[in-house]
């Protein structure tokens, strides 16, 4: 019998449907690997040898924690876009595809933001034209509208199904979700004072508004009577007995409830942290006034009124 290689779905779309207990080919799309290795390699080169070769590198420090954050984001991206999640998200489950997108927006992008040192953005600040563009792009209103539009538009059935059927459109979809993640988190996490984060009270308002687009889309998917994404109906098997309707409900709930719980938790943390700092400021101010009164009394003066 002649030796033959098993079919390898390098292009992913149109490949044979995986079978077996894990329902995956256990093969990483080489384009995904190349994409992530290039991004990570450029990051390490920019903060490492390329940074040290330029004058003034001592003014461009890189923390080890920043490197760890960026590499964590790259590893999570590799997990989200690799097997088995990628096979599940293409062949069988809307819920797995939703998980893939949520990992990109809510884990990968924040890790990358935390991993990039502030000085990397200096060329944007020092050039007036680039600064004007950057300031417009990260404006909280633009960020909110842009991220909301991406979340809503890409879940319209015709576009969502189209992305599953056409690889180029699928690639564009994933890039859009990475952009949406950047828009969502930059007003919260910016390290650049000129493009700085919102004050804590406004961060809470911003995060509350972020619950709306995902909540609306998630509720629409969860309560839909019909199957919105028929691509998944083409599968010859339903792994682990999860039917299309149940899968659609899980996907909708993960966007609706999952993301909103995260946003509300962050709102609580930010507000309580801000409130405690404000309380500490008031307490320190009161102590300073009391010390001043005591000093005036000790020197025989008349303390000011309350």
Task: Give an account of the 3D structure.
The protein has 306 residues and is mainly α. The protein has one domain (30-292). The protein is built from twelve helices and no strands.
Largest sheet: none
The average pLDDT value, as a whole number, equals 90
Number of strands: 0
* Number of DSSP helical runs: 12
Overall radius of gyration: 25 Å
Share of helix among residues? Answer: 55-70%
User: Secondary-structure element sequence?
Assistant: HHHHHHHHHHHH
Total domains, how many? 1
> Which structural category fits the helices and strands?
mainly alpha
The rounded distance between the terminal residues' Cα atoms is 98 Å
Short structural description:
With 306 residues, the chain is mostly helical.
List keywords for this structure.
mainly alpha, 306 residues, 12 helices, 69% helix, globular
Describe the secondary structure blueprint for this structure.
Elements: H1 30-47, H2 49-53, H3 64-81, H4 85-92, H5 94-115, H6 122-126, H7 128-137, H8 140-153, H9 157-165, H10 167-189, H11 200-223, H12 244-298
């Amino acid at each position: 019998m002649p030796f033959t290689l098993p079919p390898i779905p390098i292009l992913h779309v149109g490949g044979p449907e995986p079978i077996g207990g894990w329902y995956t080919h256990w093969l990483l799309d080489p384009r995904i690997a190349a994409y992530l290795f290039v991004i990570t390699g450029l990051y390490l080169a920019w903060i490492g040898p390329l940074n040290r070769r330029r004058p003034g590198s001592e003014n461009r420090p890189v923390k080890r924690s920043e490197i760890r954050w960026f590499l964590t984001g790259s590893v999570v991206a590799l997990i989200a876009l690799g097997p088995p999640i990628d096979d599940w998200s293409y062949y069988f489950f809307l819920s797995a595809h939703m998980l893939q997108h949520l990992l990109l927006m809510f884990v990968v992008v924040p890790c990358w933001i935390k991993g990039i040192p502030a000085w990397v953005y200096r060329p944007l600040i020092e050039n007036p034209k680039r600064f004007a563009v950057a300031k417009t792009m990260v404006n909280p209103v633009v960020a909110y509208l842009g991220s909301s539009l991406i979340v809503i538009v890409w879940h319209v059935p015709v576009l969502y199904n189209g992305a599953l059927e056409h690889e180029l459109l699928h690639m564009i979809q994933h890039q859009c979700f990475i952009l949406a993640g950047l828009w969502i988190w930059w007003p919260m996490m910016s390290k650049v004072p000129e493009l700085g984060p919102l004050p804590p009270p406004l961060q809470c308002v911003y995060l509350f508004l972020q619950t709306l687009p995902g909540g609306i889309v998630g509720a629409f998917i969860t309560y839909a009577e019909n199957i919105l994404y028929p691509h998944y109906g083409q599968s010859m098997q339903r792994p682990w007995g999860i039917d299309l309707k149940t899968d659609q409900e899980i996907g909708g709930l993960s966007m609706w409830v999952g993301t909103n719980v995260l946003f509300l938790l962050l709102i609580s943390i930010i507000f309580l942290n801000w409130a405690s700092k404000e309380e500490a400021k008031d307490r320190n101010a009161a102590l300073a006034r009391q010390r001043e009164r005591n000093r005036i009394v000790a020197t025989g003066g008349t303390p000011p009124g309350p």
